[in-house]
Request: fold
Amino acid sequence: MRRSLLRLDRRLRVLGAVAVSLALAGCRQDMHDAPRYEPLEASTFFANGQASRMLVANTVPRGLLRADTHLNEGRVDGQLATTFPMAITPAVMQRGQERFNVFCSPCHGRTGSGNGMVVQRGFRAPPSYHEDRLRNAPVGYFFDVMTNGFGAMQDYASQVPVADRWAIAAYIRALQLSQRATLADVPADRRAELDRPAAAPAAAPEGR
Reply:
């Protein structure tokens, strides 16, 4: 009986030692400490002593190929585009209004008249979107200004994605139309809505 217990104890010790060895082997840092260069680290492998290599000429990072100049530059055959590169849907207009209110209205105002809140506090006033020069400007002009900036206005290329810039341009066109629209611009099946009285504001709840 005693010998059996001794054999069992010896086997358990051997198994324990094997388990510890396997655990230690699993904790090796070979992959974690794999040879590599940190950004801008020196290197003796390359002749110029730099580990960071320049991109191969004429290569474009994945996802950044901007072959469509109409979409990405607001130009067609080198001229400012007079059309949009995508369909203008209610969703696009809603997005354009939301982005306009965030990025444009502080200077241009909610109606595009150039009397935004920062202008009211002394900042240089931008031109009104409703002056003839801008009403007659091609839509690509607004995209170009948002992309590259103009005058006192900085560019918004890094803050506003391409699709949102076009959505804002569409909303600017809607603002311009809103100031000069006529009855003929309203669809015939909706003209009756113009004669409806405005809804009264909801009454404030009475205090307890």
Notes: Residues 2-26 form the longest helix (25 residues). The mean pLDDT is 86. DSSP finds eight helices and two strands in the chain. Residues 29 and 203 are 69 Å apart (CA to CA).
